[in-house]
Design brief:
The complex is a heterodimer of chains A (113) and B (118). Helix content of chain A is 0%, strand content 52%. Chain A is mostly beta strands. By secondary structure, chain B is mainly β. Chain B contains no helices and eleven strands. In chain B, the strands form two sheets. In chain B, strands 2, 4, 5, 6, 9, 10 and 11 form a seven-stranded mixed beta sheet that branches. The chains are: A mainly beta (113), B mainly beta (118). Chains A and B meet through strand 5 and strand 6 of A and strand 5, strand 9 and strand 10 of B.
């Protein structure tokens, strides 16, 4: 069965520090992978996506993610975090057959001044 | 582009009342998804439509929930009667599914409707 695991429920980093949010997936075929961000009281905004090709994908707001098939991972990174990055981050895998998205439980990012 | 539009943004109702949530997808999109977000269960897909036709409603919790898409620019999610455990944030998302064997699409989410059933 398809599943997505985000091992870290809550992460706190200092402003200006680097960030890595982990995502592991389970999917039988070629996965389509996404990262969304949700600010408090807001909807989900797409940060980036991986469909095929280059395994390092660039997104908005300075985020990037690397697809590693051997590790079934799609970790999100940012070299220098800004206070406005504080939010909840969701990793999701999309089914190539149905288009359905399976979401991880989310990681809440807190940024210290 | 206006994005996905949902209304109302907030809804407070009493147990037993009927609740109707509305969604207008992005113009030109042909797939629409309804999700529910709760602390306990996270984000879960309730139902989705392709070309206004319901494809998979296996995520709909029970018969109290129903969804319709009468045309390409409007969908509703109805709960009747509502119960306190239905309190959640309900999201609508839309995407454009191109012709082909594999679904390669990006879902765009609305701002959500925050439902509180007392």
């Amino acid at each position: 069965a398809q599943s997505v695991t985000q091992p870290d429920i809550h992460i706190t980093v200092s402003e200006g520090a680097s960030l890595e949010l982990r995502c592991n997936y389970s999917y039988g075929a070629t996965p389509y992978l996404f990262w969304y961000v949700q600010s408090p009281g807001q909807g989900l905004q797409l940060l980036l996506k991986y469909f095929s090709g280059d395994t390092l994908v660039q997104g908005i707001k300075g985020f990037e993610a690397e697809f590693k098939r051997s590790q079934s991972s799609f970790n999100l990174r940012k070299p220098s975090v800004h206070w406005s990055d504080a939010a909840e981050y969701f990793c999701a895998v999309g089914s190539s057959n149905t288009g359905k998205l399976i979401f991880g439980q989310g990681t809440t990012l807190q940024v210290k001044p | 582009d206006a994005g996905v539009i949902q209304s109302p943004r907030h809804e407070v109702t009493e147990m037993g009342q009927e609740v109707t949530l509305r969604c207008k997808p992005i113009s030109g999109h042909n797939s629409l998804f309804w999700y529910r977000q709760t602390m306990m269960r996270g984000l879960e897909l309730l139902i989705y439509f392709n070309n206004n036709v319901p494809i998979d409603d296996s995520g709909m919790p029970e018969d109290r929930f129903s969804a319709k898409m009468p045309n390409a620019s409007f969908s509703t999610l109805k709960i009747q009667p509502s119960e306190p455990r239905d309190s959640a944030v309900y999201f609508c998302a839309s995407s454009f599914l191109a012709r082909g064997l594999a679904r390669k699409e990006t879902q765009y989410f609305g701002p959500g409707t925050r439902l509180l059933v007392l």
